[in-house]
From TrEMBL:
Residues 67-128 form the Homeobox domain. The keyword Ligase does not apply. It comes from the Eukaryota. It comes from Aquarana catesbeiana. Keywords: DNA-binding, Homeobox, Lipid biosynthesis, Lipid metabolism, Membrane, Nucleus, Transmembrane, Transmembrane helix. It is a multi-pass membrane protein. The chain crosses the membrane at residues 38-56, 136-155. SMART domains: HOX (SM00389). The keyword Ubl conjugation does not apply. Pathway: Lipid metabolism; sphingolipid metabolism; Sphingolipid metabolism. This is Homeobox domain-containing protein. GO terms for biological process: ceramide biosynthetic process. GO terms for molecular function: DNA binding; sphingosine N-acyltransferase activity. Residues 69-129 bind DNA.
Length: 186
């Protein structure tokens, strides 16, 4: 079964241009080509980045947000109304005017009170300012680091400066060992 799956998944018609086979892409001691197995490198990278994000947001971004004076706004909690909560979870966050009328009659509340309840309940679902700051700071750091590493790894390559080099010897372009992890992130 596994052999059949591998045979189907790695068919050269899917991955290589016409007239090129996997046999043409054999590696030698000095020549290294990207291999389909390099795609599996992304799984541990994703797990590592998820762990790093958790650590960064918890131990760097959160204390930084407190030092910068980012405070949470007070979110007024809606009163405990099971009928409204049930409607909110099943039918959506924004009831129509007719639904508000029927809910107000069902709960013995004024229309304005039902509207306020839904507004307060929607506010409870919104991300906090601190959480937004932590996520934005993670994205800033990871994109900055990725960009700087990419420039450092690729700056001495001829195709970095002249894009016509992309097509030189296509598809038999050699990939240096230092480029393999970087190409997998792109």
């Amino acid at each position: 079964m596994e052999a059949l799956l591998n045979q189907w998944l790695w068919r050269q018609e899917y991955w290589l241009p016409p007239g090129v086979t996997w046999e043409d892409m054999k590696e030698t001691e000095n020549v290294h080509y990207p291999r389909p197995s390099h795609l599996f490198f992304g799984i541990p990278c994703a797990l590592i980045l998820t762990g790093l994000r958790f650590i960064f947001e918890r131990f760097v971004a959160l204390p930084l947000s407190k030092k910068m004076g980012i405070r949470e706004k007070y979110k007024r909690k809606p009163s405990n109304k099971p009928i409204l909560e049930d409607f909110y979870s099943k039918n959506g966050k924004h009831p129509t005017e007719l639904e508000i009328l029927s809910l107000s009659a069902e709960c013995n509340m004024h229309i304005r009170q039902v509207e306020h309840w839904f507004r307060y309940r929607r506010n409870q679902d919104r991300s906090s300012t601190t959480k937004k700051f932590c996520e934005a700071s993670w994205r800033f750091i990871i994109y900055l680091i990725s960009f700087l590493i990419g420039v450092a790894v690729l700056i001495d390559k001829p195709w970095f400066w002249d894009q016509r080099e992309f097509w030189t010897d296509y598809p038999y372009q050699v990939v240096h060992h230092q480029q393999i992890p970087w190409k997998l992130r792109m």
